[in-house]
Amino acid sequence: MPNLKISHNGGDVERKCRVTQRHLFQYVTKFYQHVLALVFAIKEINENPKILPNVSVGFQIYDSYLNARMTYHRTLDLLFKSHISVPNYNCDTRKNLVAVIGGLDEDISFHMADLLGLYKIPQLTYGSFAPEERDVTEFPPFYRMVPNEEVHQTTGLIDLLLHFRWTWVGLIIIDEDSGEHFLSTLEPLLSQNRICLASTGRIPSHMKWENAQELIGSVSQIYETFADHKSNTFILYGGSLTIMSLISVMVFDYMGDEERYGFRKVWIVTAQVDFALVTLQRMWNFNYLESILSFTIHSRDVAGFQNFLQNIRPGQMQGNGFLKDFWEQAFDCSFPNSQSPMASKKTCTGEEKLESLPHSVFEMPMTGHSYSIYNAVYALAHSLHAMSTHRSNHRIMVGSQRGETRELWPWQLHPFLQDIVFNNSAGERLSFNGKKEIRAAFDIMNLITFPNHSFLRVKVGTVDADALEGSQFNIQEEIIEWHTGFNKTVPNSVCNDFCHPGYQKTKREGEKFCCYDCDPCPDGKISNQNDMVDCVICPVDQYPSKDRDGCIFKSISFLSYDEPLGAALVSFIVSFSLITIFVLGIFIKWRETPIVKANNRDLTYTLLVSLLLCFLCSLLFLGQPWKVTCLLQQAAFGIIFSVAVSCLLAKTITVVVAFMAIKPGSKMRKWVGKRLTNSIVLFCSFIQSAICIIWLGTSPPFPDFDMQSLTEEIAAKCNEGSVTMFYTVLGYMGLLSIISLIVAFQARKLPDTFNEAKFITFSMLVFCSVWLSFVPAYLSTKGKYMVAVEIFSILASSAGLLGCIFPPKCYIMILRPELNNKEQLIWLIVSYVQ
Asked: Does 428 score more than 50 pLDDT?
């Protein structure tokens, strides 16, 4: 049978799974699972008759020693040595290399790619690191068995911080290029999402325990990141061994005082970091990292894998040169005649159980990295199978002779590998995207630690950029186990407590934007969410609440009959109307007396009726405005009041003309009579009516809502339509009143028994005073009080006319009837002429 070999050069894994005894010092035993996952996958393929029948797949493992020179050296060994030892087999066979799987860390992977890329040998990496660290387009044979770190993990990290509202976080990175690249990638994303880095610590890629001064410096530098106790969340980014270095730092300076250094933190760990300890560290306490959320490469349980692990015994796997070494360090025991420099006094029986080991030493469930290796082997096997089938079909088509073989070159595998689509034994469908990255996701795991130095991984979320919109990030917050110091509640990690509704954030000078003060919202604005940058103005139909944390709908306000002010005005309107009717009744009763006749009886009746209508038209301003009432309010008031003032003007002019007409030889006699008075009233009223008709025809008043003038109310009012026409109506009334005042003032010294000029003068002074005060008062008030001012002005001016002109006449008619006779009138006129 042909013998195809897959070389496993697993980057950092080789350092942990040393093949050569003389190089052995200490394993990271947990990573031995990576090798076992490779062995298990090849075992399944070789036993499956449906994949690569008549073909045996073998593998070789090479050690990089975490060193660039050794990585290049081992890669050259792989490429150019014609005979090498196979760790799993004691055989000497010709190498038929098809692909390389590795490595775990970034540097080793790219060192390997420098050489493998020259020969177009497929390289499948199973470690998670940023593709932009180096331009992977330089290495066409470079395939990734893990999702893109920046597309999946970094965005998932931001989503996780936003979900828990952690805006003040610390960062600890490995002190090498990959850590700096992660920092440069993460910082802009944090700023865009209003998240700040409270501090950044750097862990040396390799802790140097032999240099005490340098070690203390490293410890002090890392501990500076814990100084800010407001930062309860830390992001940990580094290589596979970073967790070992971090725990080493904590143990070195712990001194039994956990609160001193603030180990009560939430740790968000990236997928590059694995929770593994070497033998010397196995008794160290994972409780330093009690509250951990870890991004891990997505994995599933593979049927038969745990059973495979449970059945592993040192004597069962012949040709495995490092299984005994792994066994000794994992179980802290020694086999007879062991040459290990760290031999234990305890003797290994070979019957120890892997499942009894703490998870920091060895995990039984398949980890994400092991799952990636398992899928990488199957991806290569399916690609080889597809290429073999294609070749067989091609030989049949061209009529090749039976038994003819063609040599397999690694570069021929690329078209099949890149387009491969298959279902693995866990039921997942796998394929590569256009960037030669496997289509997969990251899992978010909660690590629950136990006093026996073990831990349990609980899946609490996923990050999948290829999922449907809205389901790319999922987290089950309720099943997360937090640090006991947080009292089982979600911890805060903010520079200061958030600003409550009713307040807005104000930047602190000289500090990061995540640190701010909370100032109350200014008048007229509200904030209804936590940490609002600026308070906002309520909609026009709403107003801020007392605490300025919400908007309340405004009530509709108008001057109604039911409220005290409206009821008081109605009572005044009714009272003045009844008084006017009473005065009109008196004048009608004494209509044949000289005092009534002397002052133009018809004009008096017209004046009293117009005053009565002025009082009653005030009722149009009360209640909710409607279209009809808005049309009638100003027009009716303007016309009726103009009639009243015109009557006063006509009365005054009539008195003046009458006294001028009685002089000998006067030519004014022809103007004495009803024709003059009627003409004055009709002409003056016609002008005001014409103004109102033009107003109503061009821009009539209409019902409106004033939402801005009042803070807590919407004022229902009549919009004048045309402010110019409104003030024209008022201005014309003012003109008539001024003319009446001037004429009455000139006639004030005429005989006063029946002369109204003096009273008209006083009434016009009252009228002008009221309306001159009305304009500023009207403009300075809002809502229903503006209507009240107008009603008051109408009542005051009308009452002024009624009170200044008619009481003296009523007094004579009722209480001094002896003065109400024709002889008295003639005597006064004669006296005036003499």
From this structure: yes
